[in-house]
Specification:
The chain has helices at residues 6-24, 26-32, 37-46, 49-59, 70-94, 97-104, 107-119, 125-142, 153-176, 182-204, 213-237, 243-249, 252-265, 271-290. By secondary structure, the protein is an all-alpha fold. Helix 3 packs antiparallel against helix 10 (182-204). It is globular.
Length: 299
C-alpha cells in the first residue's frame, strides 16, 4: 500500500482529536440521564442505529452482508465495545469516578502492547516516553480525587477490565479499517453492541425508559454526539494512523471531559487540572514526533 501523504495524515489526526472531544461529552450526558448506567449505554448505540443504517444503505456494496469473514470480526468489535461501556458504568458503582476514569485510561498501554504483539508495529523508546507522559498527565487530571482502599478494590479492578475491553475494540477497529469502510465498521459493530447491551440491561433490572422528553433528548444527544460523531470520526481516522498512536491521542478525551464539566456543570477546574491537561498534550505531541508513517487503507 502507498504511504499516506501529509495532508491525509493531518486530516486523520484532526478527525481523531475531534472524535475524542465528542466522546468527552459522554460523561455530561450520562450525568443527566434518567435511566440506568447500562441502559444509558444501550440507548447510546441503539438510537445511533437509524442514522448509521441510512448512511450504510446509501453506500453499501452489492452484497449487503460481508461474506469474506469480516462479519464475525465486526461483531466481535461491537461485543468488545459493549463490554467496555457496561463494565465501565458498573465500575462507577463500586469506586469513585476519578478511580474509574483513570484506570480506564490505561487502554493505550494494552493497545500498544497488542499492536507490537499482534500487528508488529514498531514502537520506539521516544514513543514509550510520550505514552508515559500522557498517562502521567491523565493521572494529574484526577489525582486530587484518586483514592485506593479495600472498599474500592472491586471497582478499581473493573476499571482495569474496562481498559482491556476498550483496547480490544480499538485494535479490532484499526485492523478492520484496512478491509472495510468507516461506515461499515460503525454500522455492524454498533448493531452488535446493542444486541449485547439489551440483555445485560434487562438482566441487571435497570430502569430502561426515560420518564420525560428531556430524558430522551439527553439520550439522543449522547447517541449523535458521542457515538455517531465521536466514534465515527475515530473509526475513519484509524485507517490512516497506527493503533498505538491513536489510543494515546484519545487521552484528549478526559481533558475535554474535565473542561466541559467545568463549563457546563460548574465542576472544579483548578491548577492541577490545567497542568494535567498540558502534560497530556505534551505526551501526545511526543508520541506524534516518534510515530512512524502509517499505510493508507479503505476510505
Amino acid at each position: 500500500m502507498r504511504a499516506t501523504d501529509a495532508s491525509t495524515d493531518r486530516k486523520a489526526l484532526t478527525a481523531l482529536v475531534a472524535g475524542a472531544i465528542c466522546i468527552g461529552f459522554a460523561p455530561i450526558f450520562v450525568r443527566l440521564t434518567e435511566v440506568g448506567y447500562t441502559a444509558t449505554a444501550f440507548w447510546r448505540v441503539t438510537l445511533a442505529l437509524p442514522l448509521l443504517c441510512a448512511v450504510w444503505l446509501a453506500r453499501r456494496p452489492r452484497s449487503a452482508v460481508p461474506n469474506d469473514g469480516r462479519l464475525r470480526w465486526l461483531a466481535l468489535a461491537g461485543a468488545f465495545f459493549a463490554c467496555d461501556l457496561a463494565v465501565w458504568h458498573q465500575s462507577i458503582r463500586f469506586t469513585s469516578v476519578a478511580n474509574s476514569t483513570l484506570l480506564a485510561n490505561l487502554a493505550p498501554v494494552f493497545v500498544t502492547a497488542g499492536s507490537v504483539w499482534l500487528f508488529g508495529e514498531r514502537i520506539t523508546p521516544r514513543f514509550v516516553g510520550g505514552l508515559v507522559l500522557a498517562l502521567a498527565g491523565s493521572a494529574t487530571l484526577v489525582g486530587d480525587s484518586f483514592r485506593i482502599s479495600l472498599g474500592t478494590v472491586f471497582g478499581d479492578a473493573l476499571g482495569i477490565v474496562t481498559a482491556v475491553f476498550y483496547a480490544g475494540y480499538l485494535l479490532g477497529v484499526s485492523r478492520l479499517r484496512q478491509r472495510a469502510s468507516a461506515v461499515e465498521v460503525m454500522w455492524w459493530s454498533t448493531l452488535a453492541c446493542a444486541g449485547v447491551l439489551l440483555p445485560l440491561t434487562l438482566a441487571l433490572g435497570e430502569p430502561l425508559w426515560p420518564r420525560t422528553a428531556r430524558g430522551w433528548e439527553v439520550l439522543a444527544g449522547l447517541a449523535l454526539v458521542s457515538q455517531v460523531a465521536g466514534q465515527g470520526l475515530i473509526a475513519w481516522a484509524m485507517a490512516h494512523l497506527p493503533a498505538a498512536f491513536s489510543s494515546v491521542s484519545l487521552l484528549v478525551q478526559p481533558v475535554a471531559a474535565t473542561l466541559l464539566a467545568w463549563l457546563l456543570l460548574g465542576e472544579r477546574f483548578g491548577p492541577w487540572q490545567a497542568l494535567g491537561g498540558a502534560i497530556v498534550i505534551a505526551g501526545i505531541v511526543t508520541c506524534r514526533l516518534a510515530m512512524a508513517r502509517p499505510a493508507a487503507a479503505v476510505g
